[in-house]
Amino acid sequence: MKIVFVVSALIALAASDHPERFLDLQADMEKFLEECSKETSLSHDEVNAYLVEDGSENDDKSSKYIMCFFKKRGVVDDDGNFDLDKAREAVKEYMKEVHAEDDAEALECVQEKDTAEDTGLALAKCVQKRRVELEHKK
Protein backbone atom coordinates (compact mmCIF):
# COMPACT_ATOMS: atom_id res chain seq x y z
CA MET A 1 0.00 0.00 0.00
CA LYS A 2 1.28 3.44 -0.87
CA ILE A 3 1.70 5.90 1.95
CA VAL A 4 0.09 9.30 1.84
CA PHE A 5 2.47 12.08 0.82
CA VAL A 6 2.31 13.60 4.21
CA VAL A 7 3.37 10.42 5.98
CA SER A 8 6.34 9.58 3.80
CA ALA A 9 7.56 13.12 3.60
CA LEU A 10 7.51 13.69 7.31
CA ILE A 11 9.00 10.30 8.17
CA ALA A 12 11.80 10.93 5.72
CA LEU A 13 12.34 14.46 6.98
CA ALA A 14 12.50 13.44 10.60
CA ALA A 15 14.56 10.30 9.98
CA SER A 16 17.14 12.12 7.89
CA ASP A 17 18.28 14.08 10.92
CA HIS A 18 18.08 11.20 13.40
CA PRO A 19 18.22 7.77 11.70
CA GLU A 20 18.38 6.00 15.06
CA ARG A 21 14.89 7.28 15.83
CA PHE A 22 13.32 6.00 12.60
CA LEU A 23 11.42 3.11 14.21
CA ASP A 24 9.99 5.37 16.90
CA LEU A 25 8.95 7.89 14.26
CA GLN A 26 7.39 5.18 12.14
CA ALA A 27 5.34 4.01 15.14
CA ASP A 28 4.30 7.61 15.82
CA MET A 29 3.28 8.04 12.18
CA GLU A 30 1.12 4.93 12.26
CA LYS A 31 -0.53 6.19 15.45
CA PHE A 32 -1.13 9.63 13.94
CA LEU A 33 -2.54 8.13 10.74
CA GLU A 34 -4.91 5.95 12.70
CA GLU A 35 -6.05 8.92 14.79
CA CYS A 36 -6.57 11.07 11.69
CA SER A 37 -8.44 8.24 9.96
CA LYS A 38 -10.80 7.98 12.92
CA GLU A 39 -11.31 11.76 13.01
CA THR A 40 -12.19 11.96 9.30
CA SER A 41 -13.63 8.51 8.53
CA LEU A 42 -11.16 8.18 5.63
CA SER A 43 -8.76 5.31 5.08
CA HIS A 44 -5.17 5.72 3.91
CA ASP A 45 -6.13 4.25 0.53
CA GLU A 46 -8.98 6.72 0.10
CA VAL A 47 -6.69 9.66 0.78
CA ASN A 48 -4.03 8.27 -1.58
CA ALA A 49 -6.59 7.87 -4.35
CA TYR A 50 -8.05 11.30 -3.71
CA LEU A 51 -4.67 13.04 -3.94
CA VAL A 52 -4.11 11.95 -7.55
CA GLU A 53 -7.69 12.43 -8.76
CA ASP A 54 -9.07 15.70 -10.09
CA GLY A 55 -12.53 15.48 -8.55
CA SER A 56 -13.61 17.46 -5.52
CA GLU A 57 -15.23 14.54 -3.72
CA ASN A 58 -13.90 14.30 -0.16
CA ASP A 59 -12.20 17.73 -0.36
CA ASP A 60 -13.30 18.64 3.14
CA LYS A 61 -12.52 15.26 4.71
CA SER A 62 -9.19 14.91 2.91
CA SER A 63 -8.20 18.43 3.90
CA LYS A 64 -9.04 17.64 7.52
CA TYR A 65 -7.04 14.40 7.33
CA ILE A 66 -3.99 16.16 5.90
CA MET A 67 -4.24 19.03 8.39
CA CYS A 68 -4.68 16.59 11.25
CA PHE A 69 -1.45 14.90 10.29
CA PHE A 70 0.47 18.13 9.67
CA LYS A 71 -0.60 19.42 13.09
CA LYS A 72 0.43 16.23 14.85
CA ARG A 73 3.88 16.46 13.23
CA GLY A 74 4.37 20.19 13.89
CA VAL A 75 4.24 21.45 10.29
CA VAL A 76 1.17 23.45 11.30
CA ASP A 77 1.32 25.22 14.66
CA ASP A 78 -1.40 25.57 17.29
CA ASP A 79 -2.53 28.85 15.73
CA GLY A 80 -3.06 27.15 12.36
CA ASN A 81 0.00 28.63 10.67
CA PHE A 82 1.64 26.50 7.99
CA ASP A 83 5.47 26.42 8.03
CA LEU A 84 6.52 26.64 4.36
CA ASP A 85 10.19 26.02 5.14
CA LYS A 86 9.37 22.72 6.83
CA ALA A 87 7.11 21.90 3.91
CA ARG A 88 9.93 22.48 1.38
CA GLU A 89 12.26 20.23 3.33
CA ALA A 90 9.55 17.57 3.52
CA VAL A 91 9.03 17.75 -0.25
CA LYS A 92 12.76 17.33 -0.87
CA GLU A 93 12.93 14.30 1.41
CA TYR A 94 9.80 12.74 -0.08
CA MET A 95 11.08 13.20 -3.62
CA LYS A 96 14.42 11.57 -2.73
CA GLU A 97 12.59 8.25 -2.87
CA VAL A 98 12.23 8.74 -6.65
CA HIS A 99 15.69 10.35 -6.98
CA ALA A 100 14.19 13.78 -7.62
CA GLU A 101 14.88 15.73 -4.42
CA ASP A 102 15.69 18.87 -6.41
CA ASP A 103 12.76 18.52 -8.80
CA ALA A 104 11.76 22.12 -9.48
CA GLU A 105 8.20 21.20 -10.37
CA ALA A 106 7.66 19.45 -7.03
CA LEU A 107 9.26 22.31 -5.11
CA GLU A 108 7.00 24.80 -6.90
CA CYS A 109 4.09 23.00 -5.25
CA VAL A 110 5.02 24.71 -1.97
CA GLN A 111 2.94 27.85 -2.22
CA GLU A 112 0.92 29.60 0.41
CA LYS A 113 -2.81 29.70 -0.25
CA ASP A 114 -5.58 31.61 1.52
CA THR A 115 -5.71 29.21 4.46
CA ALA A 116 -3.45 26.57 6.00
CA GLU A 117 -6.01 23.95 4.95
CA ASP A 118 -5.89 25.10 1.33
CA THR A 119 -2.08 25.19 1.47
CA GLY A 120 -1.80 21.67 2.88
CA LEU A 121 -4.29 20.14 0.49
CA ALA A 122 -2.87 21.85 -2.60
CA LEU A 123 0.66 20.88 -1.59
CA ALA A 124 -0.22 17.24 -0.98
CA LYS A 125 -2.14 16.90 -4.25
CA CYS A 126 0.48 18.68 -6.35
CA VAL A 127 3.47 16.76 -5.00
CA GLN A 128 1.72 13.38 -5.08
CA LYS A 129 0.71 13.90 -8.72
CA ARG A 130 4.27 14.89 -9.61
CA ARG A 131 5.69 11.87 -7.83
CA VAL A 132 3.30 9.49 -9.58
CA GLU A 133 4.26 11.10 -12.90
CA LEU A 134 7.96 10.56 -12.21
CA GLU A 135 7.40 6.98 -11.01
CA HIS A 136 5.60 6.12 -14.26
CA LYS A 137 8.45 7.51 -16.36
CA LYS A 138 10.86 4.94 -14.92
From TrEMBL:
<protein>
    <submittedName>
        <fullName>Uncharacterized protein</fullName>
    </submittedName>
</protein>
<dbReference type="Pfam" id="PF01395">
    <property type="entry name" value="PBP_GOBP"/>
</dbReference>
<dbReference type="InterPro" id="IPR036728">
    <property type="entry name" value="PBP_GOBP_sf"/>
</dbReference>
<dbReference type="GO" id="GO:0005615">
    <property type="term" value="C:extracellular space"/>
</dbReference>
<dbReference type="InterPro" id="IPR006170">
    <property type="entry name" value="PBP/GOBP"/>
</dbReference>
<feature type="signal peptide">
    <location>
        <begin position="1"/>
        <end position="16"/>
    </location>
</feature>
<dbReference type="GO" id="GO:0005549">
    <property type="term" value="F:odorant binding"/>
</dbReference>
<dbReference type="GO" id="GO:0007608">
    <property type="term" value="P:sensory perception of smell"/>
</dbReference>
<keyword id="KW-0732">Signal</keyword>
